[in-house]
Design brief:
mainly alpha, 0% strand, single chain, 76% helix, elongated, 3 helices
């Protein structure tokens, strides 16, 4: 059980630096905006912005988990 909790803590503690997060955010925002074909800012639509934040959070978590895996 201790090992499981230890891994759970690692999965929820994202050690991305501010610059890594901002780089991901900047590029992902543009990519999604272009792919959806919208000309307005994503944050102008609350539902779209909430969805974007979920996608970004999941991506950051996956990147974090992969960094842990690759550094074992």
């Amino acid at each position: 059980m201790k090992g499981k909790n230890k891994m759970d803590n690692k999965k929820t503690d994202y050690p991305l630096t501010d610059s890594e997060f901002m780089d991901i955010d900047d590029k992902l925002y543009i990519l999604i905006q272009k792919t959806l074909g919208i000309k307005y800012n994503i944050n102008e639509d609350k539902n779209l912005f909430d969805w974007y934040c979920e996608v970004r959070s999941e991506l950051c978590e996956q990147i974090h988990n992969k960094k842990i895996e690759l550094n074992k």
